[in-house]
């Protein structure tokens, strides 16, 4: 939600999810002792890079001071991602940063394949990939690699189809 809207998403109590799409996530997060979630988009203008997400082990509200600090931390994180010091003398990205950013290509490629297979839009295809990853307790990258290799084909599991 934070990535899509480019706005912070602050959920101070996962026992009362914000909407129906959060019900399964909220229940699973609570099983792992997570009671609150605060997500801050990493973006510069319209360019989005990811989300800085913080989890709380108790129900809590950030308050204005902590929210401002988290916004500053998200801004600093974005700057670090874009900072030229993340490159080596030969102009290549720091290997750790390159690894973190590289996998996105595979996710987007798999998302396109899932979109075609499911005959849906990109957002729904990615949501289905995430749901599969969550349900199978795997990472989104692992699911993406399986889609790309042909080991996994997402199917339309809705009743009557």
How is this structure best summarized?
Helix content is 50%, strand content 14%. It is of the alpha+beta class and 161 residues long. The longest helix has 24 residues, at 95-118.
Instruction: Report the order of strands and helices.
Output: HEHEEHHHH
Residue stretches low in confidence (pLDDT < 50, at least 5 long) are none
Mean pLDDT: 82
Number of strand elements: 3
**Major β-sheet profile:** 3 strands, antiparallel
Strand order of the largest sheet: 1-2-3
Based on CA inertia axes, which overall geometry fits? Answer: globular
Helix residue percentage: 40-55%
Radius of gyration: 18 Å
Q: Which percent range describes the beta-strand content?
A: 5-15%
**Backbone structural class:** alpha+beta
Distance between the termini: 28 Å
Helix count equals 6
Summarize the topology.
Blueprint: H1 2-5, E1 9-11, H2 23-31, E2 36-44, E3 47-56, H3 63-82, H4 95-118, H5 122-135, H6 140-149
Helix pairs in contact: 4-5, 4-6, 5-6
Could you explain how this protein is built, in words?
This protein has 161 residues and is of the alpha+beta class. 50% of the residues lie in helices and 14% in strands. Helix 4 crosses helix 6 and helix 5 packs across helix 6. It starts with a helix and ends in a 12-residue tail after the last helix.
């Amino acid at each position: 939600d934070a990535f899509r809207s480019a706005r912070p998403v602050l959920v101070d109590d996962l026992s009362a999810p914000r909407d129906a799409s959060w019900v399964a996530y909220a229940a699973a997060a609570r099983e792992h002792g997570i009671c609150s979630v605060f997500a801050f988009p990493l973006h510069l203008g319209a360019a989005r890079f990811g989300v800085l997400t913080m989890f709380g082990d108790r129900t809590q509200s950030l308050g204005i001071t902590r929210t401002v600090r988290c916004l500053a931390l998200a801004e600093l994180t974005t700057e670090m991602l874009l900072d030229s010091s993340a490159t080596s003398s030969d102009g290549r990205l720091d290997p750790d940063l390159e690894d973190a950013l590289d996998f996105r290509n595979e996710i987007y490629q798999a998302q396109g394949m899932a979109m075609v297979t499911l005959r849906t839009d990109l957002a729904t295809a990615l949501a289905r990939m995430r749901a599969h990853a969550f349900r199978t307790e795997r990472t989104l990258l692992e699911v993406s690699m399986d889609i790309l290799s042909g080991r996994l084909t997402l199917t339309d599991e809705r009743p009557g189809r």
